[in-house]
Every structure is written in C-alpha cells, then in structure tokens.
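Quarterly update from the structural biology core.
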Amino acid sequence: MKVLLNCSICRKEFYKYVSTGTFPAKNHYCSNLCKNKGISQKGYKKSRVDKGVGRGRIEKKCLTCGNIMSVIPSLRGRKSFCKKDCLYEHMSKLMSGENNPAWINGSSYLKDSYRGDDWETIRKKIYKRDNWTCRICGVKCISRRRANENNFYKVIQCHHIIKYKETFDNSDNNLITVCLRCHAKLDIKERRGQDDRSNILLSLYRVII
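Predicted structure, tokenized:
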C-alpha cells in the first residue's frame, strides 16, 4: 500500500510502500542522508569497522609457525594459532603416538597400510599438486564418497614409485596421484612379476617428467 509520510528530519512529504497490517514505524526518512542524520541524533553505536578493528589489540606469536598475529585482549588466553592449518598441525603432533588416548601398543605402525604419522596431509598435498588427475591414464579422479558402481575405478589414490617399506620415502618426487584402476594394475604387475621392477619405475618417471 502506498502512503504519504512526512520525513522525521526535513519534514518533507514523500510516498512510501507499506505492507498492509504492519505496525507503523516511529521514524520515516525520505533519503539516506536524512536516515544517517536520524541515526546520529539517536546516539546509534558505531560498528567495529567505524571504531577501528586494530584499536586495543595485542600482538601474540602463533605456537606452530611463529608468525605474529593481532588478537583482542579477551582472547589472549584462548587464541594461540594464526590459522586452522596451524591448529591442525599442532593437534596432530600433540595427539600422535602414546599421547593419543586411543593408543594401545603401537601395533598400527606394523600394518601394511601404515605410511607415516602425517600421511593424510602428505597425500592431500600430492592430490592438489597433480590437480586430482591420474598421472597414468589422465582421468579426473573422484573421492570415495562420490563413487558408485559406474565410476568406482576413478577413486583417487596415492602411489609410491619406490615402495614405502623399502625406503620409507614420502617425498614429493616419490609420490604420484593415480586412479584406483591404474593403482591396481601397478600392484598386480609388481606382485606377479609380469614386468621388471626397473621398467615400471622408468615408465612412472617418464610420466612425472
């Protein structure tokens, strides 16, 4: 409904669309200029941006990377990391091995699937480096959550060019991104001895180069 109103600041008449049945406001403004004047007259509190975010802050060193960050005094005892990655890295070190309440006797380190304490972080870094693409066949890999009976062979994997058990090498030069199908083919060839180990490594190095 269109009604005729008087501006609370300049007393100018203007038309405004008002919903039927709504409770009328105490103040009406014909423009943003009058609205700002009305807000200032009512003593409206300024936002944090107007006050200045940096005012009253203190400097504190990140416990993980050592970078200096700016925090408000009320968070001085609670904020110890400059970003989430630093927090995750700190918690990973803090909760590994005997410090973890779920730790029993270290038997997990003897499992075939064990690739180091920071394997999750390493393999995600390799996936990002290779743009989540298989370095053997070039297919765009997918996560396990997106896998179904039609595309399960595209599930992303991280492959050691030289076996982890032989060198315990998790360096970038020894890791490539592969899909589940190519990873299975490589494992079968190595176990059955269909190809010489050196030929497999040479073909993988050519893919990387």
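The chain has three domains: 2-44, 52-90, 115-208.
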